[in-house]
Specification:
single chain; 3 domains; 13 strands
Length: 472
């Protein structure tokens, strides 16, 4: 009975045949076809490209930090080690993050955990390290690109056990076990490792927008060149299918009118008797293609909460509206950064610490990767908040608050030498205040000053020194 209670009974219900998923109901967005479509959307559409560029640049400038799980020396040593590994890879940390961000476009991104022994300088760049402590660190976290995916490997219990890829140039099938993969995905649904592209909801708008642009381009070209009409000489029936000589003549005439373009090589040599006319269309079109394309651009930007990029381009929108929309966009980017941190904190960093055996025995827990804010702090609002809170006594200014204010305002870090100066200034300010009862004058003899009676009560003297900031 006890064994049955620990056994998994049901199944997830994935629409999967072998290692291929069919959760996407549009066939053109399934598997490798979907990868190709999302790649075209990201690289060939101006609005989508601008949105993805904005996301990448904001995330690139975000700060990253490693936080200890405890206060022991071993915890701090583990933090320093993770920092050193981030700074000792073949690719920079910023470039690694840039590769990881492809999971936004395709819905997922897989990176192999590649390690090295840190034995100092080496001619082999794969083994070269800034450190010679003999520990095992990250060599690199290379992407296993989405285009090379062959299939996902699963066991009979719907557990993901690996990824098979077929990469160029030899296109051989390579199996990578899941314990060597760092998988990033935008969302989790039925345990699907492919996630869901942030461009998925923009596909319909992008599809119609692209075709309207193509039709618009053809229409503009035809309006500039005119509608070509080539007339055969009188008495020549190029439509006579019974005459074998007419078929090639008609084919040549069709080719002429189809290839008429306005360019530097435009021109035509026509036989005697043939007439070429370029008919023009009068009036305006019934539909305003600019308005239609702008509507689709707005829908595309809305799907990723980035429609603020269109403010001003369409002569609409206010500063307050822009502020609200950019704040919402920043919150979405913060969620993407959380996804990256969770993948490192749940797998990459624990595996790295465990690989180094007894070196980090005694740590409270694994260190964690954390990200900074992507949006600058409004210093005016921060200053007003701190002023109000300190005014009512809820917040008491201390070194931690000063350090935060300096960081938020882009000010230099606090120096230790300033502590003694601050204590001296506080002492001067407090000496100018009226003395408290029992400390400024002798409680027994009001005519006797505190200096005359400071030897009479040592406890009062100690309290006065502490209040004035003097070390006792």
């Amino acid at each position: 009975m006890a064994n049955n209670s620990l056994k998994e009974i049901g199944r997830i219900g994935q629409k999967r045949y072998g290692g291929f998923f069919y959760e996407e109901f549009l066939k053109e967005l399934q598997g490798r076809k979907g990868i190709s479509v999302y790649k075209e959307m990201s690289e060939n559409d101006d609005v989508i490209g601008a949105i993805l560029y904005a996301i990448e640049m904001l995330i690139r400038q975000a700060s990253w930090s490693v936080q200890p799980a405890g206060t022991t020396a071993k915890d701090q040593e583990a933090v320093d080690f993770v920092y050193s590994c981030m700074d000792d890879m073949q690719e920079t940390w910023t470039d690694t993050i840039s590769e990881i961000l492809s999971f936004l476009t395709f819905g997922w991104s897989a990176h192999e955990l590649v390690y090295k022994r840190r034995n100092g300088k080496n001619r082999d760049q794969r083994l070269n390290s800034k450190y010679d402590d003999g520990l095992i660190g990250w060599m690199k976290l290379p992407i296993r690109s989405q285009e090379t995916l062959w299939e996902w490997r699963y066991d009979d219990s719907d557990n993901l056990i690996g990824m098979a890829q077929m990469p160029p140039p030899d296109f051989g099938i390579i199996d990578i076990p899941i314990d060597r993969l760092l998988l990033f995905k935008t969302k989790s649904r039925k345990g699907n490792p492919e996630g869901r592209s942030i461009l998925r909801n923009a596909y319909r708008s992008w599809y119609f927008k692209r075709r309207i642009q193509e039709i618009e381009g053809i229409g503009v070209e035809r309006d500039l060149a005119g509608f070509p009409v080539l007339t055969a000489p009188e008495g020549m029936n190029i439509w006579d299918e019974d005459d074998p000589d007419m078929a090639p003549i008609r084919a040549a005439a069709d080719k002429i009118v189809q290839n008429i373009r306005r360019d530097s090589l435009e021109g035509l040599c026509k036989p005697n008797g043939w007439t070429l006319e370029l008919l023009s269309t009068g009036g305006r079109r019934q539909f305003d293609t600019n308005a239609i394309i702008e509507r689709y651009d707005t829908r595309i930007a809305m799907t990723v909460l980035a429609d603020f990029v269109l403010l001003g381009h369409q002569q609409v929108g206010s500063f307050a509206l822009s502020s609200d929309k950019t704040k919402l966009f920043s919150m979405a980017i913060g969620a993407y950064l959380d996804i990256i941190c969770e993948a490192f904190n749940s797998k990459a960093i624990p595996a790295l610490i465990d690989l180094n055996g007894d070196r980090f025995n005694g740590i409270t827990d694994y260190p964690t990767l954390e990200h900074g804010d992507v949006e600058e702090t409004d210093t005016e609002k921060l200053a007003a908040f701190i002023k109000d809170m300190t005014g009512v006594g809820i917040i008491i200014p201390d070194d931690g608050i000063e350090d935060y204010v300096r960081e938020a305002g882009g000010l230099p870090e606090r120096l230790e030498d300033n502590d003694s100066k601050r204590n001296h200034n506080d002492a001067q300010q407090q000496t100018q205040q009226p003395p408290k009862a029992g400390t400024g004058t002798n409680a027994v003899n009001p005519d006797k000053t505190a200096e005359e009676g400071e030897d009479d009560d040592p406890a009062v003297v100690e309290e006065a020194k502490r209040r004035l900031g003097r070390h006792v």
